[in-house]
Specification:
Elements lengths: L2 H11 L1 H9 L3 H4 L3 E3 L5 E2 L5 E2 L5 E4 L6 E3 L4 E4 L4 E3 L8 E5 L4 E4 L2 E3 L3 E5 L7 E3 L2 E3 L3 E5 L8 E2 L2 E3 L2 E3 L4 E6 L1 E2 L2 E3 L2 E3 L4 E6 L8 E3 L2 E3 L3 E5 L15 E2 L17 E2 L8 E2 L35 E9 L8 E12 L2 E10 L4 E9 L24 E4 L3 E4 L2 E7 L2 E12 L2 E8 L5 E8 L2 E10 L8 H30 L14 H9 L1
Parallel strand pairs: 1-5, 4-6, 5-8, 6-9, 7-10, 8-11, 9-12, 10-13, 11-14, 12-16, 13-17, 14-18, 15-19, 16-20, 17-21, 18-22, 20-23, 21-24, 22-25, 24-26
Antiparallel strand pairs: 1-2, 3-4, 27-28, 29-30, 29-39, 30-31, 31-32, 33-34, 35-36, 36-37, 37-38, 38-39
Helix pairs in contact: 1-2
């Protein structure tokens, strides 16, 4: 996909994206919902998180991303959910780049990396979380995550159903991983890579269940807590427990790549945690069978009005979206962007009208389920779940349309979107931020027919009435003319002059 097209789509459909690209807003803030600064401040101030001492931060609702730049704090999820846009966006649920940070009691799902430990972080604790349905559950260094992590504790988490690795460690030293359920991960339960630089990492009381491969390690680690505490539960362990002490009588060898790794005291039954995982906070997604109101051949064009934009920077003038095909709830669309410098480019993308997913998720706000109503929740990538605020009537592409709308804010930027109710297509989007205002508004489409303006409708109405009146008057005059009596004749029926008759009467 060409950069210009991507930029154009962002400019058009996610106007906050336009401002982000233009003014180089700090990535951590632009890509997330909550930012905890070095001074303990929260950005934006209206985010779903609260603190009274700048030490313990507690979520008050679901969120989309947290970036932490402060040491010595606790982030208590209080059972709420961080839900991402999917792994394709390469986003993290929580980014930890500092020291002595505890993350607990949270549901984290649908990210590339659920919790990312960035470079040279230490003494962080990840405890009592549900970390599910990400590409990587926890990523600590390496592979683009950073390097060198010390004294990390990962305990009592459910790390399940992640596409690649449940836990991916790289160059980690003195990491303790205990009491976790690590299950149903697509590649490895634990991937331990250090190239000779990882050391003194210990694993015990973890439940390894139904991972494609439980462990892949390029380093030696400690896989038990001695006897009688024991090691880990492995669902592929085939040993026996003759003395019924709950520990296998023979070690469990998990060596890979020539490195010696053995659980000397494997558990015969899954370890039972002494905590209750947080219940997932209910999220109201767009139903998967959302009504699709567009069809192949439909198209709509939006024109731009932008003020405050740097004069030397090309800006979008118009964008046209054409629906190429619709299969189920997925629409294939061609997007064409025309810039103020005369350049133009296009690309073909897809979007799921019901869920907002697609090859470029910035389109998720362009088409929503048809006949959505006030109070319905829709998903918009970059913003999460948005509730429709109301319904009104406005004019787009030459005719009056019933539209639904939503207004919300991100990082001091106010946004308002309008969607045509019948088709679900976006007909207007506007934003105001940093002295710049931008509005995209539908001016042409083939999805509905333009009608004459009210002035011409009134003119035609009066013209028709005038014609009817003239015709009526003419008809009445004609009929009246036919029925009018004839003037008396100056002669009698016998043809004798009237004057002679009068003279006879006198005589």
């Amino acid at each position: 996909m060409k950069l210009k097209v991507i930029t154009g789509i962002m400019l058009t459909l996610l106007l906050i994206g336009m401002l982000t690209l233009a003014f180089n807003i700090q990535t951590a803030k632009a890509s997330g919902t909550i930012y905890i600064g070095p001074d303990g401040s929260i950005d934006p101030p209206t985010a779903n998180i609260t603190t009274v001492d700048n030490v313990t931060y507690t979520l008050t609702g679901n969120a989309r991303h947290i970036t932490v730049d402060r040491d010595n704090i606790i982030i208590d999820g209080a059972g709420y959910t961080l839900q991402g846009p999917g792994s394709a966006w390469k986003t993290d649920g929580i980014s930890l780049g500092e020291n002595n940070v505890t993350v607990e009691n949270m549901n984290i799902k649908n990210f590339w990396v659920g919790i990312r430990l960035e470079m040279v972080s230490s003494s962080n604790t990840i405890s009592k979380n549900n970390i599910t349905d990400n590409d990587y559950g926890i990523g600590a260094g390496g592979g683009g995550y950073g390097i060198c992590h010390y004294n990390i504790t990962i305990s009592r988490n459910n790390i399940v159903n992640n596409t690649h690795d449940g836990i991916n460690l790289y160059h980690s030293v003195n990491t303790t991983i205990w009491g976790n359920t690590i299950a149903n991960n697509g590649e490895y339960g634990v991937n331990l890579v250090g190239m000779g630089q990882a050391s003194n990492n210990i694993f015990y009381h973890n439940n390894f269940i139904n991972n494609t491969k439980h462990v892949d390690t390029w380093e030696e680690a400690i896989w038990d807590n001695g006897y009688p505490s024991g090691g880990n539960y492995w669902d592929d362990y085939t040993g026996v427990d003759a003395n019924n002490d709950g520990i296998g009588d023979t070690p469990h060898d998990i060596s890979t790549w020539g490195y010696n790794n053995v659980d000397r005291y494997p558990l015969m039954n899954p370890w039972t945690p002494s905590w209750t995982p947080p219940e997932p906070e209910p999220v109201t997604p767009t139903p998967p069978d959302g009504e699709v109101g567009v069809k192949a051949g439909d198209w709509i064009k939006c024109d731009y009005t932008v003020t405050g934009w740097p004069s030397a920077t090309p800006r979008p003038k118009w964008l046209k979206v054409e629906i190429l095909s619709v299969e189920g709830t997925t629409a294939s669309v061609r997007v064409t962007m025309h810039m103020s410098d005369g350049t133009e480019d296009s690309d073909t993308l897809s979007v799921d009208v019901a869920t907002g997913s697609g090859t470029f998720q910035g389109l998720s706000g362009f088409v929503i389920p048809a006949n959505s109503k006030t109070g319905d929740t829709i998903y918009m990538s970059g913003y999460g779940n948005i509730t429709l605020d109301g319904e009104t009537t406005k004019t787009y592409a030459g005719t009056s349309r019933t539209v639904v709308y939503a207004s919300f804010s991100q990082y001091g930027t106010e946004l308002t979107y309008y969607w045509d109710k019948e088709t679900g297509v976006m007909v207007e989007a506007s934003t105001t931020s940093g002295g710049i205002t931008g509005t995209a508004k539908a001016t042409e489409t083939n999805m509905w027919q333009a009608v004459p303006s009210s002035f011409w409708m009134q003119w035609w109405f009066y013209a028709i009435v005038a014609v009817v009146i003239v015709a009526f008057v003419g008809t009445v005059y004609f009929l009246k003319k036919r029925k009018q009596p004839t003037a008396p004749s100056l002669s009698t029926e016998q043809g004798e002059p009237l004057q002679k008759q009068l003279m006879k009467q006198k005589a």
